[in-house]
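Write out the 3D structure for:
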Amino acid sequence: MSGGKQGLLPRKRLPDVDDDDDFDVLFELYLASVKHPKRSRMKRVIPAKFEMSWMTKHNYTDCGIFLMRHMETYKGQDVGDWDVNLKDEDEDSDDQQVQLDDLRRKYVTKMLTSDLNNLKASVYSYLPKYDELPLDKKMEMDTDKHFDRMQTRIAFLD
C-alpha cells in the first residue's frame, strides 16, 4: 500500500439508483459480479416491495438499525403477521427515533462485548473509568458531536 486512500474492502462503482426498479438491476449486477450459480434463475423472479407501517421518509441514517431489527424479529412468518415492534415515523413525535437510539445502544453493546470481538478485553478495560464519570459527563458523551466524528471517519473510507 503506497500513498493515497485505501478502503477496507474492494469496491466497484455501481450506477446511481433513481427509483425502486433500479434495485433489481443492481441485484442482477451483484449476482453477475460474484458469478452466482442461480443468477439466470433470479432474473425471472419478480421482486415484491412491502409497505410497512414503520417505513420512514425522513430518516436516511438508521438503515443498519432497521436491518438488524428485521433480522432479529423475522422468523419466516407472513409479512402481515410480522411484529417488528417498531413505532411509526411521526413528524410530531420523536418516539421512533428514541426507540432506534435504544436499539443502536443495544446492538453496539452486543457487538462490543461479543466473544467474537478481538478487542473485547480492551472494551471491558474502559468500563471502570466510565463508571467513575459523573452523570453529566456521561450524558455529554451521548451527543451529536460523536455522531459527526463518526461520519467524518466513514467519509474517509469513501
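Residues 1-12 have pLDDT under 50 and may be disordered.
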